[in-house]
Amino acid sequence: MTRRIVPKPFVPLVGALIFVTCVASAVTLDDLHGDIDAGKYDAAARQSKAYLDDHPGNRDARFLQARALAGQGHIAEAISEYESLAADFPTRVEPANNLAVLYADKGEYDKARKWLEKGLATQPAYATAHNNLGDVYTALAELAYRKALGTDDNDSRLPLTMLDRLYYAQESVAPGSEPAPAPAKRPATPETNKNNTVSAEASRSIIQTLRAWALAWSSQDFDAYTDFYADEYDPGDGMSRAQWLSLRRARLGTPEDIHISIEDPSITGLANGSVRVNFTQEYESPRYNDRVDKHLIMQRTPAGWRILREASGSD
Amino acid sequence: MLRARPLLLFLILCCWVPALAAAASEAPDDAARVHSSAEAQLLSVLNLAQKGEYDTAINNLSDLIEIRPNFRLAQLVYGELMVARSGRSLDPAISEKMRDQREALLDEAKTRWAHRVSAATEGHVPASILQLAPEYDNVVVVDLSNNRLYLFENEQGVPHLISDFYTTIGRGGAGKQVEGDMRTPIGVYKITRYINDDGLPELYGVGALPVNYPNALDRARGRTGYGIWLHGVPRTTYSRTPRASEGCVVIANDDFEMIREHVTIGTTPVIMTTGIDWMPIAEVEKQRSMLLSAIESWQHSWQAIDTESYLAYYSPDFVSDKGLDKAAFATRKKQVNASKTKIEVDLSNVSIFRYPGEDEMVKVTFNQDYSSNNYEAEDRKTQYWQRNDEGKWQIVLETEED
User: Fold this and answer.
1) Predicted TM-score (pTM) of this structure
2) Are residues B140 and B249 in the same domain?
3) How near does any CA of chain B get to the CA of A148, in Å?
4) Is A5 domain-assigned?
5) d(Cα A251, Cα A232) in Å, to the nearest integer?
6) Cβ distance of A149 and B82 shorter than 8 Å
7) Which positions ≥6 away from A186 have C-beta within 8 Å?
8) I need a labelling partner for B305 at 20 to 30 A (CA). Which of B138, B197, B329, B386 fits?
9) Enclosing domain of residue B132
10) Strand B243-245 with B173-174, pairing
11) Which ipTM value was assigned to this complex?
12) How far apart are CA B46 and CA B58, in angstroms?
């Protein structure tokens, strides 16, 4: 299967504002979006309540009401509304994402992590939630490090990075349309793939390995890095493994600060049980930066997922 | 090899040592039974991570650190898993001091991981316990090389493993010689008393069980220092790294409490050794009967008032606890025995421990009931026997105050 991280289209809300002043009695979802967008949370809370009186249980209005409550600072009520939305619509990632933001604000990062992981398990292609989860992981790592390594001296404490890159999911469906149309193109769930499916568990494990590989590279830890390559790894261009090793050793050993980041990984199962992972690789160092599409062919071994081939380009 | 960012790699590397991996998959239930619960949970997390089941590993670990936020190693493993998930290294934010602490925690991880399946096997006992008298309900054996404390109960003379625990030893390692060397002694000791929480600074945790270092042999060897205890940890931490004490044996507070509930103050032997030789019970019995027959012959020569044969059981290097050397001791014995027409010596509660760190030496403890035509005495005796170059077992040290 192919699993691409597709940013959710940002729906323009500005148009809705034009009509707000003309419509006095009947509140529309567009009005609510406009209020939220303008930070008028009191109005949004009032109007969403009015809207829900007319349209009991409306999913979008409930979502917007939760956002308004959070904006007003009524965190407990917002959490409770999001939790009931998450229970009622378990396949939507937005309530889970926003719950995670609220919990993270309270410093409850582990709850934030669990909500994001849960949301992404049902709706994997959601860039905002992925970014949020990355930040939550980092915050959790810092907290754990501080508890593990910190002493009573203040100077050895890790400064905690506040989560300032969290984004609220904008809305649950396109505004102004009711009933909600089926979302344009949802990424296919694993079950609907005809062949060579990669299980969710395997996908997790592959992505995990990919990140660990990038981390070993960034850390310039040659042994750890090369251990990610299978014994049968083919460097290509008729190069022997020994030649490849010495080349990589020279590259990794160069004393400069390397940072590798991986974006948009997508996994496709291949007929022989191996997988192909496409991703965008960003290489940063003081002397050289680039951003390329790459793919790895990986195979499961008793030691975990290992690289059989590595190539630039996504074809 | 493993370098500065070790733990993540440690987790990955775990599965590349086939023997370890096989052992891990064989007996996780046994491991859970023997080890203390916090350690068992951590080990099962490492096991899951090794199998690539990261989701379950992370959730179990997050439960563990919620219950035990002071379990630093568990926190570090969680941190490493989070780093792996986020793909962003925290190394730039880590000070030199924290790096050292991380290295020490990695040692703790390796030590605990190496013992996730207990070294104890059915039908095998530590070679150091050759005979265990009924007076001892329990024995503690500390493997200083592997940071592991084993608690046995005495099942009709056979040591039966109750549980084993991760432990911290001295910064200087094993084999204490002089005061201040930060080492943990090697030898056979006993628990002398119990100091509870109220009587202790926070550093020692929930309690302390001092042992009788330096014992008679240590004193004869000229070893100095004092205050060797088994004790807990400050409540800010669940455990300490493998080499962190000033010579004491340090155990997690919950483990300490479990040990304390079993031991008898003033009695329970504590054997501190580097590595444990697990021996089949039949082999132990063979060695025991060899030593018992030497002890019996010594006893018989005494009862027969055969002073020459009796003195032959004392090594030329012998020292009595009154400081007498072999010649002075012999003179004294000859004088005493000259007035005897009848001697009866009854030995009870005989225990025999092979002495760690010494060549062919055993420590024998017993109660001695002596009666003769003109004198009677009941004594507690400790003897150190050593096999000489001709293969004969002889007493090198004898004392009533070990």
Assistant:
1) 0.69
2) yes
3) 4
4) no
5) 21
6) no
7) A123, A125
8) B386
9) 124-279
10) unpaired
11) 0.74
12) 10
